[in-house]
Amino acid sequence: MAQHIKVIDIQRLLPHENKQAAKTKRLAKQIYKDGGLFRPLLADARTLALLDGHHRLGALKLLRCARAPVLLVDYHGPKIRLFSRRKKYQANKAEVISRALSHKLYPIKTTRHLVVGGRIKKFTPLLSLKSKN
Predict the structure, then answer these.
(1) Domains of the chain, residue spans
(2) SS3 at position 55
(3) Helix/strand number for the chain, H first, E second
(4) Most CB atoms closer than 10 Å: which of 54, 89, 103, 119?
């Protein structure tokens, strides 16, 4: 599967679960120290529902970034696997998309998404994410 990272306006991305404020702040400090991100976020190509990277997205917002590196995937294809981390929630792909579109977020760390065969890792400098140009 060819994987391509696209830099997207962060306001277009639609989270499907909440994040922890303390973890988001720690991550923002680490991203600032590193000078950028080592892994792109993961999102559905059709809806821009955020599948992985909620804390990284929050950290980029704290750092006043306008854009984020995103690996866009065919969420309903066989290469994306979804696991529920909480017994109370038996998430499925349709519900993840629905929650993202309706802004009815799952609790923190409810889901886990895996890309079969792994994901590319590519460093994206923080400065390249600051402006919308």
Answers:
(1) 5-129
(2) helix
(3) 3, 8
(4) 54
Q: Write the pLDDT tens digit of every residue in 98-109.
A: 999 999 999 999
For 63-99, what is each residue's pLDDT tens digit?
A: 999 999 999 999 999 999 999 988 888 889 999 999 9
pLDDT at 132: 58
Q: Give the C-alpha distances (Å, rounded to integers) separating 18 from 54, 58, 106, 124.
A: 7, 10, 6, 24
Secondary structure (H, E, C), 63-82: CCCCEEEEEEECCCCCCEEE
Q: Return the closest-CA partner of residue 107 out of 85, 125, 92.
A: 85
* Fold of domain 5-129: 3.90.1530
Which residue in the block uniquely carries the two structure tokens 């821009």?
A: 48
Q: Is 41 helix (H, G, I), strand (E, B) or coil?
A: strand
